Amino acid sequence: MSERYLCTLVMMSVLSVGPLLAQSEPSNLSREVQAVERAFAQTMADRDHEAFTSFLATEAVFFSGPNALRGKKAVAEAWRTFFEGAEAPFSWEPETVEVLESGTLALSTGPVRGPDGTVSSTFSSIWRREEDGVWRIVFDKGNPVCPAPPGSP
Q: From CA 53, how far away is CA 79, in angstroms rounded?
């Protein structure tokens, strides 16, 4: 085989595999963010407020009641009460995770459960991959669960 022919084959292979690699990347990132969200939720189960705080971006905004909590310090302080006591007052887990093609922002949503396992609300969180490569939460909002319409399964 000539060197030129071999180079052409290599280039064609790279060009044909490139789109496949790009397609698999978002699902890998989705799994990565899902794992981060699960680790974030585990801080509540472990009753580890310091670990919880480590997941917060400096400029985090959590919607809590009528006013948004702005900044890592305000969010950490407001959530401290949820970490008091032996048992967690609620738990959450990601159900859906979507990541931008750029790999810099992600949306994570899922159920929030009370201590008895009943779904009490849902959450939506926006995660940002920061300059150090670590995913940190920048926005979080919970929403009540809407009751099912009469006659629905």
A: 9
Task: Extract the tokens encoding 101.
Answer: 């093609």
CA angle 137, 129, 99 (to 5 degrees): 85
- Helix extents (H) in the chain: 3-45, 49-54, 72-79
CA 25 to chain centre: 16
Q: How far apart are CA 62 and CA 110, in angstroms?
A: 16
C-alpha distances (whole Å) from 124 to each of 6, 98, 139, 140 are 50, 11, 8, 6
Q: What is the DSSP letter of 46?
A: T
Pairing of strands 56-64, 96-99: unpaired
Q: Extract long-range pairs of 24-28: CB within 8 Å, 24+ residues apart.
A: 25/103, 26/99, 26/101, 26/103
At 20-49, the pLDDT tens digits run 334 445 589 999 999 999 999 999 999 999
Closest C-alpha to 92, from 52, 136, 148, 150: 52
